Amino acid sequence: MQIVILRDSAEVAEYGANLIINQLKRKPDSVLGLATGSTPVSLYQRLVAANQAGEISFKSVTSFNLDEYLGLDADHPQSYRHFMNQQLFDAIDIDKANTHVPPGDAEDPIAACEQYEAQIQAAGGIDIQLLGIGRNGHIGFNEPSSGLMSRTRVKTLTKATIEDNARFFAQGEYQPHLSITMGIGTILDAKKVLLLATGENKAEAIRATVEGALSAACPASALQLHRDAVLVIDEAAASKLADKDFYKHIEAENQLLQARLAALKAG
Ligand code: PGA
Q1: Digitized pLDDT (tens) for each residue of the chain, 267 residues in all
Q2: Contact 201 CB / ligand 1 (< 6 Å)
Q3: How many angstroms does the Cα of residue 39 sit away from the middle of ligand 1?
Q4: Which of 12, 36, 168 to mutate to test the pocket of ligand 1 (most atoms within 8 A of CB)?
Q5: For residue 213, what are the CA distances in angstroms to 41, 126, 186, 200?
Q6: How many CB atoms lie within 10 A of CB 162?
Q7: 258 CA to centre of ligand 1 in angstroms
């Protein structure tokens, strides 16, 4: 895992956005794996700005979101489809027909999960998968005890996740307790994984992800198996890492190497 520790959430968003911007410059028809939650919001704002400035285009991009509440239709203000339209899709030049979010209103959710996997395959697989992380180490809605090789399926949300997300629902409003989520195996199939985490309340989950055992108890620890996983975190989220200085040292060495390679290329 590449661990990039930055000063604050603004730097995390900037770094993450640049990785995606460079991906789109290299491969304009990239397949993006996208995430909801508070963490990616400012990254999306930077993508919107880059699109509006003509730096990148989403015309040939296909996207797949990680998850959706089961029991909410696409128009529901708390649905992840609605969130994505608001935060990103409505503000960029993407063809909405190429954006995929698991159908929260599927009549047959099990068939819908299989179809979602087939759609990802048909698109050629995900080039870069963006992830947040839950306080309990979940990625997507893969809660602790999720199979490390799991595929897209219906998952029951933990009490902790329901509580964390209650802030988005009005008092007395129906809050789903089930979801459709890509599996951990689905996420691990992405060519590159980009996990963002900011704030003290993610520090324990980040510690378990990086320095804990590979275990379904912390679903994000499965990223230890990935060939190209980048964790971009701020100082607060890094605060419980025992070897923080070593990760910073590695990153400094990485940058020196990149600069040497760039100089070599420039002749
Ligand atoms: P957050 O959610 O970005 O709102 O903290 C992350 C997650 O639960 O995956």
Answers
A1: 999 999 999 999 999 999 999 999 999 999 999 999 999 999 999 999 999 999 999 999 999 999 999 999 889 999 999 999 999 999 999 999 999 999 999 999 999 999 999 999 999 999 999 999 999 999 999 999 999 999 999 999 999 989 988 998 999 899 999 999 999 999 999 999 999 999 999 999 999 999 999 999 999 999 999 999 999 999 999 999 999 999 999 999 999 999 999 999 998
A2: no
A3: 6
A4: 36
A5: 30, 26, 21, 21
A6: 14
A7: 31
